[in-house]
Amino acid sequence: MTSGDTRERIMTAARLTVQDRGYSGLSFRELAKDVGIKSASIHHYFPTKGELGGALAERYRVDFKEYLDGLLAEGLDQTTCFRKYTDVFGATVRNENRMCLAGIMAAEHKELPEEVQAAVVKFGEMNVDWIAKVLSLGSKDEDGSIPRRALAIFAAVQGAQLIARSRGDAAVYDAVITTYRESGLLP
Length: 187
Hints:
Number of helices: 9
CATH class: Mainly Alpha
Low-confidence stretches: none
Largest sheet: none
Mean pLDDT: 95
Oligomer: single chain
CATH superfamily: Tetracycline Repressor, domain 2
Structural class: mainly alpha
Radius of gyration: 18 Å
Shape: elongated
Number of strands: 0
Order of helices and strands: HHHHHHHHH
Strand content: under 5%
């Protein structure tokens, strides 16, 4: 097994743990058990929990940005882009009642090291910027409302996921998203 493989296994196990238990639920000792290595080995790759958390949040942002940019590159219409966007958050909550990594970390904002806080904020900004691009497809922002609407959509999708998680029922997420579409919040 290569060093890169071990790092990737640590990152994957840590992401799943944080999506399930939050940043505060991330323990190097438990993570080492999940990966099948010694706790000290994790410190070789990530000297501090903050460095691991920052790397997780940054990787999550970059991967999600690639996915979202790919949707735009495909030339999909606005409605299809938003369906695929909300489907990703729905799939996450359907995966053993997990949360968006950045969303669950945002709930612990005050407890996060600065590097993790910064990465979580960047994830949110990236989402809002992408949503604004999609809202702008085929329309002009004459009154300057697109950035505010983009922020509202991001908050609404994150909130729908949080409510579904708190009830342990992914169908709640789907029902809320459907209501957003019916009300016009989501195209």
